[in-house]
Each structure stands twice: as structure tokens, then as C-alpha cells.
Amino acid sequence: MDVVGPSGKLMQIFAGHAQTVTCGAWGLGGKLIITGSSDRSVIVWNPRAGTPQQHVREVHEEGVVSMCAHSEAPLVVSGSEDGSAKVIQMEAGKIVADLPGHEASVEALGWNHPGPDGISLLVTGSMDGKLMVWDGKTFDLRCTMKDESGLAGIVRFKWLPAPVYGSWLCACCTDGALRLFNALSGQCMQVFRGHSETAVDIDVVLMEGGNGQQLGIASGSEDKTCRIFTCTLSSGNVVLPTPETDKLA
Question: Of 9, 22, 91, 201, which has the most beta carbons under 10 Å away?
């Protein structure tokens, strides 16, 4: 893996994995870099020296495909093609939690943004169609969420910002739909349809509106379109009726 600085010059080369590097993350506010690979390992790097501080081998039985570092704690979670997810203490290089339950590749994962009085949550999303919600500190399973058919694989998800909606996330799925979930209640709050093929990426934004906060969702799909969805979120945490949809070819 290469790191390029603001000037466009190559700053560092990180060499240590035996196979393809599939994912990476910054840890501890940029003090560390973590990478995952098809070789089933996770490496924690010193970004200045380009040297590995920890090399955690055979984390999974198959390749690592997804990764997310905690915004404050020295923790990183990795997801694998084998359906497993593991939480690693990056400074010690030790697995501190095993998150079982998925039956297919874990493609999406991440901690929420709870705010000062919120509840820390960690969610893992898989091609088996399930989003599993874990306590962000104890790693106990709180609930499992899925679409109405239970068949649409999870490709990506994005947490809404704190404080009011810090436990809500929006996921893009293999059936082309986007689904808004409340991870505390386990409910699917709204389904946004418009794509004809797999939705592969997503981003969200909250805006002030006349009747409450407006949720904006941008998505890209294998159908070669990007779409913008909007809806109104009431102060009672209820999604109001049908969203507007715009299509960008």
C-alpha cells in the first residue's frame, strides 16, 4: 500500500502482506494505519516509519474484505469472506471479541456516532441480508435487522450523525433498495426504491426543513445511475411519507 501526501509525492510504501490488500483505516486520529488482506491477516502500521507495529495473522479463515477503526479507542473491527467479524485491540495486536452469526461475507461494518449521552453501537452487515447490532463496548448482541424478504445482501451502510439520529443508519442493498434502520429498536423505518440493480455506495446528510429535519441520501448503483432521495424526519423519530427521488445519469 502507498501513501501520497498533499503535494502528490509518494510519502511511504507499506509492504508486508502476502496477498492483495483489500481494505484499510486510520486509527487513533491518524497515529496508526491498519490494513486487511486476502492473506487473512491484519497489520497495524507506524505511518511515519512505514513499519508494522503489529501483524495479526490468520485473523479469519478466509480473506479480510472490510474494516473500520473506532474513532477514539484503539480498536479496529474486520470482516471476512467467511462470514466472521473480529474486534482487534490494535496496540496489543490481540483479538478481543468474536462477532458470530453471519452466514456470508461481511461487507460493511462500523461504530455509530452516539454523542455525549448516546449509546455506543457496532453494526456488522453481510451478504446474508442481515445487519447485526452489537453493544459498542461489551460486544454483546442487541438485535438483528434485515429487509422484509430477508434476501437482500448488505453492501454498505452509513450512520446518521448525532445527537438525535445517532442510532439510525441507512444501508444500500443487492436488490437496489436503500433501507433506513433504527438500530436501537431494530426497526426498518423506510425503504427507498429506484435503482434497478445493486446499490454499491451511499452517503447521507441531515438538513433543516420547515417540518423537521430533512434527510438527504446519495446512492450509486450498478445500473449506471446515481440517485438523490430526500424525506422528512419528524421530532418523534418517525419517517414521514414518500420521499422525493431524483435521477442523475
Answer: 22
pLDDT per residue as tens digits for the range 46-77: 998 889 999 999 999 999 999 999 999 999 99
| Cell 438483528, located at residue | 144
- The set of long-range contacts for 231-237, using a CB threshold of 8 Å and a minimum separation of 24, is 231/190, 231/192, 233/165, 233/206, 237/164, 237/165, 237/182
With contact defined as beta carbons under 8 Å apart, do 22 and 63 qualify? yes
Nearest to 242 by CA among 228, 229, 223: 229
Radius of gyration, alpha carbons of the chain: 18
Give the C-alpha separation, 220 to 172, whole Å: 9
φ, ψ for residue 29 (rounded to 5)? 65, 30
| Dihedral of the alpha carbons of 81, 122, 100, 88, in degrees to the nearest 10 | 70
30 phi/psi in degrees, rounded to 5? 95, 0
Q: How far is CA 108 from CA 64, 86, 134, in A?
A: 11, 13, 14
d(CA 12, CA 31): 14
Instruction: Answer yes or no: are the C-beta atoms of 142 and 90 closer than 8 Å.
Output: no
Of 43-47, 95-99, 182-186, 233-237, the poorest mean pLDDT is in 233-237
| Separation between Cα atoms, residue 66 and residue 25, nearest integer Å | 10
Q: How many CB atoms lie within 10 A of CB 193?
A: 14
Instruction: Render pLDDT for 164-223 as a digit per residue (tens, 0 to 9).
Output: 899 999 999 999 999 999 999 999 999 999 999 999 999 999 988 767 789 999 999 999
| CA separation, residue 112 to residues 122, 182, 204, 221, 247 (Å) | 6, 12, 14, 24, 29
